[in-house]
Amino acid sequence: MGTGRQEQRAALTQGEVLPLDSSRQSEGSYEGRKSARSVVNSLFSGALAGAVAKTAVAPLDRTKIIFQVVVSSARFSAKEAYRLIYRTYLKNGFVSLWRGNSATMVRVIPYAAIQFCAHEQYKGLLGGYYGFQGKVLPPVPRLLAGSMAGTTAAMVTYPLDMVRARMAVTPKEMYSNILHVFVRISREEGLKTLYRGFAPTMLGVIPYAGLSFFTYETLKKSHAERSGRPHPYSYERLAFGACAGLLGQSASYPLDVVRRRMQTAGVTGHTYGTILGTMKEIVSEEGVIRGLYKGLSMNWVKGPIAVGISFTTFDLTQILLKKLHQMGYTAR
């Protein structure tokens, strides 16, 4: 024992680096694997959540975009939306109701994966900073984590959102596939066009993502405190997500209309340049309610369904993956 310690001291005085304790090495390795697994699980769960939610409401989403970007005297209503969906079905077939959904999937899978994963990471960072590691964040950091997650995802995937909007409002003869949209826009309108509407998107996603995540997390926290159950039932998660979607989309809807108008300006014959200029033109031609809030009632149907499905799918997938990991770990 004595000689061993003397040898260690002698080695240190000579400047040699002693090997780390094997238990510390294994502990660091385990934490690294745990962190990497958490990121992968969040990415996968988010991607699945986004794909399921958007596919479920794709016909309603396409109809909403058409109403947002087409200038007409017809006032939006559930009856008018139904007529548009029915005419589309008669003219182009049932599958045409999902036109542009492939572009939506190309965008929404990475968008949702990044957004949910970023939200988990921001929650961890802000929780560590404010001393709430592993707990529900206070209101302001909770709102901030959602806004930062949405902004991060939107910045990375914006050109794909532009492509989806173009495919949704044009006949299939104009753009044959996603790559064709990119090529034609780049050649005919320039690469900058792929980021047209970027500013209103960023301004809109801050309240939308912030309020959505904030509302969902707050309702789950309140439910756990009142019921004594840490995990809500699936239908409760859907209801919490629906409330989150309703608040988030209502707060950011006018900017969503502006974004769509700017994205599709090249194929609708308009020249929308700035956010304020686009808003003024919409209001002067169609009015505030009929212009900036056109299609909002459909969003009150589509939005809560999509967000409810998205949050529920993410949570349940996360729970399933953790259980599968525990089962595999126990089996070893």
Helix content: over 70%
Q: Give the helix tally.
A: 13
CATH topology group: Mitochondrial carrier fold
Shape: globular
Say how many strands there are. 0
Largest sheet: none
Count up the domains: 1
Low-confidence spans: none
The ordered H/E elements are: HHHHHHHHHHHHH
The first-to-last residue Cα distance is: 36 Å
Roughly what is the average pLDDT, rounded to an integer? 81
> What fraction strand?
under 5%
* CATH-level-4 superfamily name: Mitochondrial carrier domain
Task: Provide a short characterization of the protein structure.
Helix content is about 80%, strand content about 0%. The protein is mostly helical and about 325 residues long. Helix 2 (about 20-55) packs antiparallel against helix 13 and helix 5 runs antiparallel to helix 6 (about 140-170).
Features:
Mitochondrial carrier fold, mainly alpha, 13 helices, 332 residues
Blueprint of the fold:
Layout: H1 2-13, H2 22-56, H3 58-69, H4 78-92, H5 101-130, H6 139-169, H7 178-188, H8 198-227, H9 234-263, H10 265-268, H11 275-286, H12 288-292, H13 296-331
Helix pairs in contact: 2-5, 2-13, 5-6, 6-8, 8-9, 9-11, 9-13
Description of the structure:
By secondary structure, this protein is mainly alpha-helical. It has one domain: Mitochondrial carrier domain (Mitochondrial carrier fold). It is 79% helix and 0% strand. The chain has 13 helices and no strands. It has helices spanning 2-13, 22-56, 58-69, 78-92, 101-130, 139-169, 178-188, 198-227, 234-263, 265-268, 275-286, 288-292, 296-331. The radius of gyration is 25 Å and the shape is globular.
